């Protein structure tokens, strides 16, 4: 039974969501600040505000590929809204 439990723990560590670190928290804050700056600049330039859907990743994030794909989906939605 111990062998099975060790394997399960290893798999959970390998494939489970990453734990939030100080670096990932800081990166999240930087992204939010960048969004705010973009919204302010769009307002200053008289452009319509584009409301992007929230990022659909858990706080611990996943791989870089998951993050990039989520950003692409959000950008596509924002682009479609700007075209309407």
List keywords for this structure.
84 residues, mainly alpha
List the helices and strands and how they pair.
Elements: H1 2-15, H2 22-44, H3 64-83
Structural account:
The chain is 68% helix and 0% strand. It has 84 residues and is mainly alpha-helical. The protein has one domain. The longest helix has 23 residues, at 22-44. The protein is elongated, with a radius of gyration of 18 Å. It starts with a helix and ends with a helix. The model has no long low-confidence stretch (mean pLDDT 77).
Helix content: 55-70%
Spans where pLDDT lies below 50 across 5 or more residues: none
**Class by SSE composition:** mainly alpha
Most strands sheet: none
The succession of helices and strands, N to C, reads HHH
Radius of gyration: 18 Å
- Tally the structural domains: 1
| Percentage of residues in DSSP E strands | under 5%
Tell me the number of helical segments per DSSP (H or I, 4 or more residues long): 3
Shape: elongated
The N- to C-terminal Cα distance equals 59 Å
Please provide the count of β strands.
Answer: 0
What integer is the average pLDDT? 77
């Amino acid at each position: 039974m111990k062998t099975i439990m060790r394997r399960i723990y290893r798999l959970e560590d390998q494939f489970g969501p990453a734990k939030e670190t100080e670096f990932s928290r800081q990166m999240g804050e930087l992204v939010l600040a960048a969004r705010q700056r973009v919204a302010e600049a769009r307002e200053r330039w008289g452009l319509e505000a584009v409301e992007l859907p929230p990022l659909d990743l858990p706080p611990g994030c996943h791989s870089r590929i998951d993050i990039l794909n989520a950003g692409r989906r959000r950008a596509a939605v924002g682009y479609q809204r700007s075209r309407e």
